[in-house]
Design goal:
Layout: E1 8-11, H1 19-24, H2 36-41, H3 43-61, E2 67-70, H4 79-88, E3 92-96, E4 113-115, E5 117-122, E6 136-141, E7 156-159, H5 167-173, E8 177-179, H6 185-189, E9 194-195, H7 196-209, H8 215-226
Parallel strand pairs: 1-2, 2-3, 3-4, 6-7, 7-8
Antiparallel strand pairs: 1-9, 5-6
Length: about 230
């Protein structure tokens, strides 16, 4: 039997057990099959239905051997609720803490790693779609960074927190930075969870627009255009 290939996933701002996520993003009601009236009638039942839908959505994509980088704001339930949700989510989970992750305090054993900024590197030896001539390196933080480690050398910045509010801005300034949050454009295009290959292809398209062959060359050219180096 062929072994299932391990996949790498990125997500942010899932906001399990958070009434505000539905209040400010009512489109989150649509897929779980709820209406505004149902939500208004009994918010706790609606929240439980929302959580169950999100758990099923996660597990329909992510397998137990997969790695998931969570860029913050995972769950706003109490500790017991958070523990219950984490116990049901498949995959090896890395948590890059956001401003709404207090319920994960003391639950570090549910994660492979917990911290504020995480760097990860991916090579052609691991994933054949990556250019064999360079390493695809990402720097992950819940918050949008103005600059980040090894930016001049082509490192990518992944962020969350803004729920897609910076999508157009990120595009306009041409930086190798993208919001991987659940409500952001790239996540919506990938049904909420972004796999490594479409993430890599997203940045390849940005690179091609500038007419260069490597991410380091992209940032060198970008810094020439901007007139400064960070």
């Amino acid at each position: 039997m062929e072994k299932t290939r391990q996949k790498i996933w990125f997500c942010s701002d899932l906001h399990f057990s958070h009434l505000g996520a539905i209040h400010f993003h009512p489109e989150r009601l649509i897929e779980p099959g709820m209406t505004i009236d149902e939500f208004a009638e009994d918010k706790h039942i609606a929240m439980a239905k929302y959580d169950e839908w999100l758990i099923e959505k996660w597990n329909s994509k992510i397998n137990r051997q997969d790695t998931v980088y969570i860029l913050g704001d995972l769950c706003l339930g109490n500790k017991e609720r958070t523990k219950y949700i984490l116990s049901r989510l498949k995959g090896k989970k890395f948590l890059i803490r956001g401003n709404h992750d207090k319920s994960c305090n003391g639950l570090e054993n549910y994660f492979e790693w917990v911290g504020d900024i995480k760097e990860a590197k991916f090579t052609h030896n691991q994933f054949k779609f990556i250019d064999p001539e360079e390493t695809f390196c990402v720097e992950m933080c819940h918050y949008p960074l103005l600059t980040w480690n090894r930016r001049p050398h082509g490192t990518i910045c992944l962020m969350g927190h803004t729920h897609g509010a910076l999508d157009d801005f990120n595009e306009s300034i041409m930086e190798l930075r993208v919001d991987v949050g659940f409500d952001a454009r790239l996540a919506k295009e990938n049904d909420g969870f972004i796999e490594l290959e479409p993430l890599y292809n997203f940045f390849l398209k940005k690179r091609e627009k500038l007419g260069v062959n490597k991410f380091e060359e992209y940032n060198e050219k970008l810094m020439e255009i901007q007139g400064f180096r960070m």
